[in-house]
Design brief:
Layout lengths: L76 E6 L11 H12 L4 E6 L11 E4 L4 H12 L3 H7 L3 E5 L1 H6 L2 E4 L2 E4 L6 E4 L13 E9 L8 E7 L2 E4 L9 E5 L9 E2 L1 E3 L2 E4 L5 H4 L1 H12 L9 H13 L4
Parallel strand pairs: 1-2, 1-3, 3-4, 4-14
Antiparallel strand pairs: 5-6, 7-10, 8-9, 8-11, 11-12, 13-14
Bound molecules: glutamine.
Length: about 325
């Protein structure tokens, strides 16, 4: 992007144009991201005992005052980032950072367990993250994951999964790549194809751009914002359980006549939304965290994300 000439006003959030989709970030106080929210932001009564966490960063100052939280499945919440070099093309690894930080802000110990391709996937993690990727890496990822059923076993034991785009396709029943149909993990009852149109119809174009969802009411989430970039179309199999992640307000999502994106079944969430989706939608991060922790104290903001969401909603004319 061109740097502003001295004396020229810096671009402001309102300069965000759509189309063309060019994002100018709002100007924000940089230090906030490194500071915990003020204790006044917490909705729980102050009489609760301090958090169990003893992390050197969190032990400083205000974190001592944070309320206790329900017992985690284990003392440290383990967030598995699956094959980041194959399923990390679109910055979806940021989802791990968001989950970790939102736990730490609440005084809960958390660690990211990065699982490189070729390594066995541990079955003892609390949340499994699969990101987006191109067709070939996605096929390799599916092959690796099919070698053991760690994620399926972890889910049976109460773990949560967030699978984005290629990850969503991989945890479904089947997906296309390189002119073939590949088996997925079958964690979600969906199938992906390049098209569900009659074989003689031209292939639909790749969809790239902003996406906004009205989440399924059962999830009790605010508007979900993101970015999509995929060639595949995904539909539920007959008799599939779960609810769509949301109804598409802007964008394509699953690309089926129902106008939905993703599928949520139990503690497994598949979606086409990049962003990273949890960075733009902290409420979705907290939904995943409550799946493994039970109810958590409210944690508003951070204000940078509120500002970002407001700017994006304005730009998409859905404010
Ligand atoms: N962004 C992605 O993860 C893309 C997934 C898949 N390769 C597709 O094009 O549909």
């Amino acid at each position: 992007m061109r740097r502003p000439v001295h004396g020229e006003p810096e671009p402001q959030p309102d300069a965000y144009q759509h189309p063309p989709q060019r994002y100018v970030p709002p100007r924000l106080p940089a230090q906030h991201l490194f500071e915990p929210p003020a204790p006044s932001a917490w909705s729980e009564p102050e009489s609760r005992p301090p958090a169990r966490r003893s992390d050197s960063f969190l032990d400083q100052g205000r974190y001592q005052e944070l309320p206790a939280v329900p017992a985690a499945r284990e003392s440290t919440t383990r967030i598995a980032l699956i094959y980041p070099e194959l399923l990390g093309t679109y910055g979806d690894g940021g989802n791990a950072l968001v989950l970790t930080q939102r736990l730490r802000w609440r005084g809960i110990a958390a660690e990211v367990v990065s699982v490189p391709a070729g390594e066995p996937v541990p079955a003892g993690c609390d949340i499994y993250l699969l990101g987006g990727g191109e067709d070939e890496p996605q096929t390799l990822a599916a092959e690796g994951l099919r070698r053991n059923n760690s994620i399926e076993r972890a889910v049976a034991g109460g773990a949560a999964v967030l699978a984005v785009c290629a990850g969503y396709q991989v945890i479904g029943q089947s997906f296309p790549a390189g002119g073939k149909i590949h088996d997925g993990l079958g964690l979600l009852g969906v199938e992906t194809r390049r098209s569900f149109d009659p074989p003689d119809a031209p292939l639909p174009p790749r969809v790239v751009g902003d996406i906004a969802l009205d989440p399924d009411p059962s999830l009790r989430l605010p508007l979900v914002l993101g970015y999509e970039n995929h060639g595949g179309r995904t539909r539920p199999l007959p008799g599939a359980r779960g609810v769509p992640f949301g109804k598409v307000r802007i964008g394509l999502g699953n690309g089926i006549p129902e106008g939905t994106d993703g599928l949520v079944e139990g503690t497994v969430l598949g979606t086409y939304l990049h962003g990273p989706v949890l960075a733009q939608n902290p409420a979705v991060a907290d939904l995943l965290l409550t799946w493994v922790h039970g109810p958590l104290p409210a944690l508003p903001g951070p204000p940078e994300v509120d500002a970002l969401r407001a700017a994006r909603a304005r730009a998409l004319q859905i404010a």
